[in-house]
Amino acid sequence: MCGVTFPTLDAVAAHPSALRALNAWLATQSAEARLEWALRSLPAIHALSSSFGAQAAVALHLCTRLQPKLPVILVDTGYLFPETYRFADTLATRLALNLQVVRPELSPAHMEARHGRLWEQGLEGLERYNRMRKVEPMQRALDALGARTWIAGLRRCQSTSRAGIEFLERRDGRWKLHPIADWSDRDVGQYLARHDLPYHPLWEQGYVSIGDVHSTVRWSEGMREEDTRFHGLKRECGLHD
C-alpha cells in the first residue's frame, strides 16, 4: 500500500480506530487507486451493485476497467422505468458487463393482490415495499455469489443521508466499498464526458435520482435531489442504510 502499513483486515474490522486510519489513507488516494487496492486486498468474491440510475455509467466503467468479469447486481423490482431497462441493456452490451439480475420472490401482480399498493401506504408501506422488493433480493444475490466485498457508487453529495459515508465500512459480515464517495457532480460529469459515457435517458427530462416509476418524480426548482424519491418521505430504500 505505497509504503503504508495497516493491521490485518481482521484487526481493522475489530478496531474502529484502525478502520478510521484506513479510511483516512483511502481519502488521499484517487478512486482508481482505491479500487485497485480493494480488488487486491479485500476478500473475493467482489461484486458491484447498480440501479442503473442517472450517473450509473461512472461506477460501472470505473470498476469493470479494472476487473472486467466483476459481477454486477441489478435488482429488478418489476417497477423500473422502461428507459432504465433499455439503459441497462445498452451498458451491459457496451461494457460487456457480467450482469446478474435478481428479482423479488413475488411478482408485482402477486404482491399487489396480497398487500395492495404498498408505496401508497405511507412511510410504513414504503419501508415494507423496499424490504420486499429491494433489500431481500440484494441480500439473496450477494449470498448466492458468495460476495465478501460489496462495491457501490454512493456519493456524499447525493443527499444528507449520504453525507457521512466512508470509503470503506463493515456491513453484515462483508466489506463495503464506496470508491467515489467524495466525487462531486462535476467530477461525475467530467468522467462521463472524458470516456464518452451516457447519462440515464431520463436525465435530460429532469430526473436526477431514478428509481421505481411510482415513487420517482422530476426535479423542480426548490427541491433537493432527495425530495424526488419516495414522495419526500425518505431518501434511502434500505439497501445502503
Give the helix/strand layout.
Layout: H1 9-14, H2 16-26, H3 31-41, E1 46-49, H4 57-66, E2 71-75, H5 82-94, E3 98-102, H6 108-115, H7 122-145, E4 149-151, E5 168-171, E6 174-177, H8 185-194
Parallel strand pairs: 1-2, 1-4, 2-3, 4-6
Antiparallel strand pairs: 5-6
Structure description:
- This protein is α/β, with parallel strands linked by helices.
- Helices cover 39% and strands 10% of the residues.
- The protein has a single domain, classed as 3-Layer(aba) Sandwich (Rossmann fold), CATH 3.40.50.620.
- The longest helix has 24 residues.
- Tell me about the biggest sheet? 6 strands, mixed
| CATH fold call | Rossmann fold
Radius of gyration: 18 Å
Low-confidence regions = none
Number of helices: 8
CATH architecture: 3-Layer(aba) Sandwich
**What fraction strand?**
5-15%
Major beta sheet, strand line-up: 3-2-1-4-6-5
Overall geometry: globular
Query: Could you tell me the mean pLDDT?
Result: 90
CATH class wording: Alpha Beta
Give helix and strand order, one letter per element, not per position. Answer: HHHEHEHEHHEEEH
CATH superfamily: HUPs
Domain count, please report it: 1
Termini separation comes to 29 Å
Task: Supply database-style keywords.
241 residues, alpha/beta, Rossmann fold, 6-stranded mixed β-sheet, 8 helices
In short:
With 241 residues, the chain is of the alpha/beta class. It is 39% helix and 10% strand.
